[in-house]
Amino acid sequence: MSAKLSRRRAITLAGAGVAGVAGVAAGAGALVRGGAEHASADQGAAAGAVPFHGEHQAGITTPAQDRLHFVAFDVVTKDRARLVELLGEWTAAAARMTAGKDAGVIGAVGGVPEAPPDDTGEALGLPPSQLTLTVGFGPTLFRDARGRDRFGLADRRPAALVDLPHFAGDALRPEISGGDLCVQACANDPQVAVHAIRNLARIGMGVVSVRWSQLGFGRTSSTSTGQATPRNLFGFKDGTANLKAEDGGLLREHLWVQPGDGPDWMTGGSYLVTRKIRMLVETWDRSSLVEQEQIVGRAKGSGAPLGRGDEFDEPDFAAKGDDGQPVIAETSHVRLAHPDANDGARLLRRGYNFVDGSDGLGRLDAGLFFIAYQRDPRKQFVPIQTRLARNDAMNEYLRHVSSGIFACPPGVRDGGDHWGRALFG
Amino acid sequence: MRTTRFLVLAAAGALATTGLAACGGQEKDAGTADGGPIAVKASDTACEVGRTELAAGQTVFEVTNSGAKVTEFYVYAAGDRVMGEVENIAPGLKRELRVELPAGTYETACKPGMSGKGIRGALKVSGTAATVAPDAALAEATASYQRYVTSQTAALLTKTEEFVAAVKAGDVAKAKALYPVARTYWERIEPVAESFGDLDPKIDGREEVVEEGMEFTGFHRIEKDLWTTGDISSDGPIADRLLADVKEIVARANAEKLTPLQLANGAKALLDEVASGKITGEEERYSHTDLWDFNANLEGSKAAIAALRPALEQRAPDLVAQLDTEFANVETALGKHRDGDGWKLHTALSKAELKELSDSINALAEPISKVAAVVAR
């Protein structure tokens, strides 16, 4: 009985979390797993602040928050100094907002009545909600589509910041792809994340212009071993084998740019790939459970690799069934995405579910906003996605509609530092 | 696209005209239980069947097309279950259909222009009718569907040959006219093949499936040239390759045997095709002939369900009734967009009209998704 009730109850609780007290959703995850030990203990931490300054930018290995507002900007100024000045202003605003303060020093209601406030005000009274803001630089910042060196940065473009190739099946829409700059805002309260992006866009008027943005909910992977594995919109646990904050040596090997990898300004940074993946959920929902599980390569309930019992058991790719066929199909997602199939390459994923309403044909405009960080996309995302695009049985239910790649510099060290200082310095 | 899931079966071109005769080619040359073939006079407006009351057993129909349009002749059991059919009867041609008919009530149909419900007539067969055991009903389902696929692949080959010939002759108008017709036979049986994963993208891959180092070939490559620049002068090799690939898929399909479960999943997969790619206009982005494909997918799905019908009636009669209703609803919704013997272009439909089609497909696909579990039990 309790097993039957728990899911609905968990959803109700998660819904309550939307109102602003985050961490309830994390508690809901615990309920789904049948243990209530995390149900209330996380609430304080989930509302708290994540340190802004540090060796690496926050928002990468930070335990994945529940909400996302991601934005990509075009730089519209030709004036390098204005751009650098903006990055400084953004950094100051980001440091304030991630601490739970207003975007500007005056604030939403503290200024003169005749002037617009320097904060938009919708986050007044809300806690920091573990807001993180993470910035990245796109290939077009270094050279535009016509090959022009826009800001004298062309020779500073890292070789690893590649133009992604066309992958089989890509149906990309240019107007929601690419960008000169990006900012990833993650928080446990969507209003806090939206507030942050809205204020950065406002501060940037005339220097940058919003190219596209994406809201996300329901983190689709865990970036910390303390987190339960969430489910994507196909109903499957996602991110079981993800790189996690606790992985120490693996993070150096797979996540952080090391000295000598490329230009010094990227040392301690990471490369970000975003992919908006529409899921054809209606047709997925009428495929049989066995087909779904064969496509994913995991059991829907437990998340265990097919043929194994526990979610975190290693998949046995050599196992054959009674029919002589592999228990985990050759075209299954888990096999093709696994490090074993990719020369050991791994990613740190922190994607989000999205639902952009419906598409006018009665279909949910929904899917996964995939986000992955890595040390070198040429060795990680590109070969992995090439393999998936060719062979993944799941492709029948997916459409890749947006794509982006960005170089995320290392962390802002202190109050005298700012985003892009080493790049432009 | 790589959307196909079960197998096109069977059928070398040589087996073209007949269903049962293909397996029993050594039987007596002609004749029926009452002796002598039944003449069918097919024109663009009439379908005269020589006799409409027969004794159970093997029957031969001799169909003569005196009309100006290419036609088809079908014998349907309840729910439009195909008992036998001849595809692609060109004007002036005479083709034979051999079919084994147990006692019961049937319909004959000529389809001038190969579209619509056709010109229907009643056919009564009397004699001893054995009751079919449940498992035998499933076995008969695959045999029945296999006959359908045999005729479709034969017509696919013929129509692809005609299309390829038009392309190579540089006849843009003729190639454009033949394009959606040839594809009709492909789309009816499209649940062709994950097992033909290498051939499907070559024949039916859309431009975006092409990755670096791969060539864009097949129907959609020629579609693009026909409808964007109209320059097909360099498409000869592409056309030859298309025909070779179609021949290969037909031959390879010949070696495959379907299971009832694959029939059920295939019927669903065809509707998913519509819901994913046709309703959005993705599939035929240059020619906008998506509604031809839509109709062909629907017909193919219906044929698979019809083959399973006797088994389903024994196991889940309510589901059969629901499917009949929903198939009729989709046909009505789609029927509004007929244009002569063909279909309006996708671009001619409003968003509201597309939504109505999408809703009707979903209403049908949901119950169809339950068929596999009924078959499996």
Automatic annotation (TrEMBL), chain A:
- What EC designation does it have? 1.11.1.-
Domain (Dyp-type peroxidase C-terminal) ranges: 229-412
Q: What GO molecular function terms would the record report? A: ferrochelatase activity; heme binding; metal ion binding; peroxidase activity
Q: Where in the cell is it found?
A: Cell envelope
Q: Keyword set for this entry?
A: Heme, Iron, Lyase, Metal-binding, Oxidoreductase, Peroxidase, Signal
Q: Where is the Dyp-type peroxidase N-terminal domain?
A: 57-217
Instruction: Enumerate the Gene Ontology biological process terms.
Output: iron import into cell
Tell me which GO cellular component terms the UniProt record holds.
cell envelope; cytosol
Name the predominant localization: other
Q: Which cofactor does it need?
A: heme b
> Which transformation does this protein catalyse, written as a reaction?
heme b + 2 H(+) = protoporphyrin IX + Fe(2+)
Instruction: Give me the comment on cofactor binding.
Output: Binds 1 heme b (iron(II)-protoporphyrin IX) group non-covalently per subunit.
Q: Name one Pfam family in it.
A: Dyp_perox_N
Member of which family?
Belongs to the DyP-type peroxidase family.
Q: Which NCBIfam families match?
A: Dyp_perox_fam, tat_substr_1
Q: What does this protein do?
A: Involved in the recovery of exogenous heme iron. Extracts iron from heme while preserving the protoporphyrin ring intact.
Name the chain's protein: Deferrochelatase
Give the originating organism: Micromonospora carbonacea
Provide the organism lineage as a comma list: Bacteria, Bacillati, Actinomycetota, Actinomycetes, Micromonosporales
From TrEMBL, chain B:
Q: Which UniProt keywords are listed?
A: Signal
Imelysin-like domain span? 141-370
Q: Which GO terms describe its cellular component?
A: periplasmic space
Q: Name one Pfam family in it.
A: Peptidase_M75
**Lineage: superkingdom:** Bacteria
Task: List, for all copies, the residue spans of the domain called EfeO-type cupredoxin-like.
Answer: 28-121
Q: What is its main location?
A: periplasm
Q: Where does it live in the cell?
A: Periplasm
Say which family it is in.
Belongs to the EfeM/EfeO family.
Q: What is this protein called?
A: Cupredoxin domain-containing protein
- Which species is the source of this protein? Micromonospora carbonacea
